[in-house]
Amino acid sequence: MKQRPNILFLMSDEHRADVAGFAGNKVVRTPVLDELARTGVVFTNAYTPAPICVPARQCLASGQLPKTCGCEGWTDLQPGYRTFAREFSRYAYNTCCSGKLHHMGQDQMMGWRERIAADTHIDDKYVDDPIAEEFERYSKAPGTGKWSNQREVEESRPVYNHEGPYQFQDRMAVEAGIHYLERYFKDPLYQRPQSHRPLLFKLSLVQPHYPYFTDPERFEYYHDRVPIYSEEPCDHPVLSLSQLNKPVNVNDADIRRATACYYSMIDQVDCHYGKVLDKLKALGEDLDDWIIIYTSDHGEMLGQHGIWEKTRFYEASVKVPLIIRWPKGFEGGRSIDANVNLCDLFATLCELCEIEVPDGLDSRSLVPLLQGGPCDWSNETVSQVYRGDHYVMIKQDALKYQYYGEKFPEVLFDLSVDPGETCNYAEDPEYREAMQQFRQRLSELGYGPQADPNYLNAGYHAPGKVGSG
């Protein structure tokens, strides 16, 4: 029986898809990711299942949309939940993650056999048998906790003689990851390699997630080069403002400083990945034998449409970079513009590694697209988020439908004629039929006034096969 391939899963946090050299950005320096893209396959229309950290990561892990896995808001998967790490561990893979997974419940491993430089943290609601009156005795002092978006932008800056919190966390994840790979393939002290089994290694970094701090050298390079967004919010009641933050009123100098920090953080992430790839090559590994994936959990508005952070269904927030490289398995140097989702990576990895795809996923294998052959692809992608109500995005071809509950108007963007997402075509007679189809699909997904009460999952074709919804 042949050996299953090793997998290197690289992930960042809050990386908008258009701030990368391989995406056509002429300012940011991402030579490592650009080389992966040059020799791999780039998905130019990859989307997150939820434009916010925690549910996006639970969906990626489970191969299911938020409604299917029960993580529509700031909620963790149930202990023992089937994740791709847990599934691959069943097939004798050594599964290790260095860095951020953002699990908050008692099951901090979620199927990973090893976690190093981990972001382990149990949220208050998952504490066993909490004594409510004891928790009520303590309250946060004014000014502690999450900053407002206003302050995030105002506080962005280069940091001298010190590391920002996420710069430190990422450096620890990279250094720990490199030491792990050394021990795995060629232990410098004990000379006891563990590489008789296949490896699934995930390096998950926190940058370029805010706060926007960076080193002075990178900041100086980017400060006068970065493009900035200085726009007014649209007049839609949900798209315009965050329900958790007041409007951000900053000047162009503030925006430029924050944007320069953001670009610098992406630059640093790229360098971190280069160190890991260089180490693997130094250990004698042929990277052409490895399946290498790069993606992020969601994007960042960066002031576009007058908005910062994520949580929106604008392209800057809901779209993600996605590269898959495996020269021994499929031809690289290509881009694919089909609508795909981070949920699809579960089934994709299973099929690439000849592992049976479990039932009940919202995950379609991307292998037929990667191999370049004909396939029946629905070209649909779905994203969901809970912000006081259930918000849903359904994208079919270039049309992007958004539902914000019965209290707010629907939104329909047509990216083929309005890539800047400035015109709402929901009431346009020319799109009446499309709107009817989107509303029907919304019901099938368990949302809206006619929501299917028997919803189980997105209803894609059988696991391991590419199909329509």
What does this protein structure show overall?
- Mean pLDDT is 92; it is low at 462-469.
- The chain is globular.
- The chain has helices at residues 31-39, 53-62, 66-69, 84-90, 132-136, 149-155, 165-186, 216-223, 252-282, 315-318, 344-352, 367-371, 432-444, and strands spanning 7-12, 41-43, 46-47, 94-99, 114-116, 157-158, 199-204, 213-214, 291-296, 319-320, 322-325, 334-336, 340-341, 380-386, 390-396, 399-403, 411-414.
- The longest helix has 31 residues, at 252-282.
- Strand 14 (380-386) and strand 15 (390-396) form a beta hairpin.
- It has one domain: Alkaline Phosphatase, subunit A, CATH 3.40.720.10.
- The chain is 29% helix and 15% strand.
- By secondary structure, it is an alpha/beta fold.
- It has 13 helices and 17 strands.
- The strands form four sheets. An eight-stranded mixed sheet has the order 5-4-7-1-9-11-2-12, with helices on both faces. A four-stranded antiparallel sheet has the order 14-15-16-17, with helices on one face.
Low-confidence regions: 462-469
- In round numbers, the mean pLDDT is 92
Series of secondary-structure elements, N-terminal to C-terminal: EHEEHHHEEHHEHEEHHEHEEEEHHEEEEH
Reported by name, the CATH topology is Alkaline Phosphatase, subunit A
Q: Termini distance? A: 35 Å
Secondary-structure class: alpha/beta
The proportion of residues forming helix, as a percent range, comes to 25-40%
What's the story with the biggest beta sheet?
8 strands, mixed
- Continuous helix count: 13
Number of domains: 1
